[in-house]
Design brief:
Elements (H helix, E strand, L loop, with lengths): L1 H4 L6 H12 L20 H13 L5 H8 L3 H11 L4 E2 L2 E2 L6 H20 L1 H6 L8 E6 L3 H4 L17 E8 L1
Antiparallel strand pairs: 1-2, 3-4
Helix pairs in contact: 3-5, 4-5
Length: 173
């Protein structure tokens, strides 16, 4: 073998394993299929299952999805973020792109609004009321000096934290 393969000759233990396998009547040296979890969990079937679960209940967390499908948490996160493009926003999985049904609904509503506008532009715009509200709280911030008592007595309470305190008054502008 050294004369034929040169520097690429396998080590003695590898050749011994091959000989043992051939004695057992094996013709192929590849590994036999193994039981257990598949090596790749990001299959189209799992992507569809995750998508179906999220669309049915958007409040599911990654652990619940992983346990229900039987794949790892990391694979579920990969499917949600990379395959389905769904970020988690305020405890809900939200698709980044509209579904075809949502696009169609928006198109129908927009066409109906455009027809109403073209029929009576002034009347159409008068139907809408827009306003902007801004609640303003009155704060009385406390400075660092105000919170530190001068001539502090040993029995006096510790200084208060430097947080702004609200006066319970607010105004709408």
């Amino acid at each position: 073998m050294v004369a034929t393969l040169g520097d690429y000759v396998p080590v003695l233990s590898t050749v011994q394993k091959w000989a043992a396998e051939f004695k057992r009547s094996r013709e192929n040296l590849k590994d036999n299929p193994r039981l257990g979890r598949p090596a790749i969990a990001t299959t189209q079937e799992n992507i569809d299952r995750v998508h179906h679960m999220v669309m049915n209940d958007r409040r599911l967390n990654v652990n619940q999805i992983a346990n229900a499908i039987g794949i790892s948490r990391e694979r579920v996160e990969n499917i949600l973020h990379n395959e389905l493009s769904t970020p988690k926003v305020s405890i809900r999985w939200v698709p980044r792109h509209l579904t075809p049904d949502q696009k169609y609904t928006r198109q129908v509503i927009s066409q109906a609004n455009l027809a109403l506008f073209e029929a009576n532009p002034a009347g159409f715009l008068e139907r809408f009321l827009t306003q902007d509200e801004c609640w303003v709280h009155h704060f009385q911030p406390e400075t660092k000096r105000q919170s530190v008592a001068e001539g502090k007595h040993p029995s006096s309470p510790p200084p208060r934290a430097l947080w702004s305190s609200s006066t319970r008054r607010k105004a709408i502008l």
